[in-house]
Amino acid sequence: xxxxxxxxxxxxxxxxxxxxxxxxxxxxxxxxxxxxxxxxxxxxxxxxxxxxxxxxxxxxxxxxxxxxxxxxxxxxxxxxxxxxxxxxxxxxxxxxxxxxxxxxxxxxxxxxxxxxxxxxxxxxx
Amino acid sequence: xxxxxxxxxxxxxxxxxxxxxxxxxxxxxxxxxxxxxxxxxxxxxxxxxxxxxxxxxxxxxxxxxxxxxxxxxxxxxxxxxxxxxxxxxxxxxxxxxxxxxxxxxxxxxxxxxxxxxxxxxxxxx
Amino acid sequence: xxxxxxxxxxxxxxxxxxxxxxxxxxxxxxxxxxxxxxxxxxxxxxxxxxxxxxxxxxxxxxxxxxxxxxxxxxxxxxxxxxxxxxxxxxxxxxxxxxxxxxxxxxxxxxxxxxxxxxxxxxxxx
Amino acid sequence: xxxxxxxxxxxxxxxxxxxxxxxxxxxxxxxxxxxxxxxxxxxxxxxxxxxxxxxxxxxxxxxxxxxxxxxxxxxxxxxxxxxxxxxxxxxxxxxxxxxxxxxxxxxxxxxxxxxxxxxxxxxxx
DNA sequence: GTGGTCTAGACCACG
DNA sequence: GTGGTCTAGACCACG
Lengths: 125, 125, 125, 125
Prior knowledge:
The structure is a homotetramer.
Chain A: H1 13-26, H2 39-46, H3 50-62, E1 66-69, E2 73-76, H4 84-103, H5 108-124
Antiparallel strand pairs in A: 1-2
Helix pairs in contact in A: 1-3, 2-3
The structure holds a DNA duplex.
Protein name (chains A, B, C, D): GntR family transcriptional regulator
InterPro entries (chains A, B, C, D): Tscrpt_reg_HTH_GntR (IPR000524), WH-like_DNA-bd_sf (IPR036388), WH_DNA-bd_sf (IPR036390)
Domain HTH gntR-type (chains A, B, C, D): 11-79
């Protein structure tokens, strides 16, 4: 698992974990139906508390990205078509960043290229 | 000032303020070189703590979006070309959202259109 | 036996088994004095651990719904009139659900109709 | 707050708390828009850990029964009309209990009266 | 062996 | 002062 936690960051560890796990799934390194490491083993690997990993897993379950199977583990869900709610979530997250890019003087072309580039980077490797 | 604060939201008030001020600047409602309302008056308007508005202004200064002139007030900076650092900031903010959209099954076309749409809404609306 | 176990559910398998067996008895599919399948065969059928089926059977015996005859098997009891204790059990189970329905804004008419509907579905279908 | 926790029960403390708080709301003792005690004060009152109360509050928020306002407290939501999902939740909870009552030999009339009685007890005090 | 629950205690961000 | 986050450590239910 290529996960790196910055304990000095002011982003909560469980949020860092959520983001990095999403990144690994987006990059295809963690595949649908593939089991994630147990909360205990991942916590030991990363040197963080079991509860912190557990919170990240539950956050990902809430986002419908994985399914926690009690006493067994967690597996990545196979999502094919985004739901209305998921598109709305992405829109709400995107809004303030687009605004910020405009304020910085970026052009539509630039922000669109950037989004496109990042998309390809995940998809292709 | 068309700012609405949701005191019950779990997004900190100062973050809401930062985002809404960025939105107003992106939409051209607050223009470069235009002075912002004083910390005191904006706080009174919104019914929030003075320190909260102050924190938002300093956050915007840190982002180089406005300039705080002690004893005088704050003015919107005139940003024409994004700096390396600002592009890097936007990239870092965009990354986890693009990843999340991929995990939800969104296509490149969809995410690019969404970014483009949001960009236009600010610029034209 | 029309029993379906969801191994990914967060309801324990033995609880699912208890509920489904109660459902089959309520629907008249399993009849009084009729022997249940052996722990071993049911476990094999469902692909679950023998101990899990055993635990479910003992839970049903504790509820006085079936009788386990050691070395022989389990048979459905013929219950005609509910005991005080059974009515008390049902009351205790019902209480928090009625409370939750009230909190959700349901009317007495609605909850009573729902109970009545579910009753008929078991009895007639 | 008339809440009693049984530490010896095998029902998790946070579940007991959830049920009792729902009961207090159903009975109108806790009213819509009324603030609940802080997690710390309620935990101290009941002699349980802060995190346990916190978990109960979050569970009630998930059920849309209250709203947690970070740094401020929690307030009871004002629910007027049950959503589809809430009716479905109640139905799923009711099902196995209705089945169990049938197995015990209860008649439709009895179970309906019981539901009606419990409803009235909450509503009228 | 796994996740679930709970405790005790700590520091922090927000306002 | 509040909830949010995190840790360290414990016992338990399930299977």
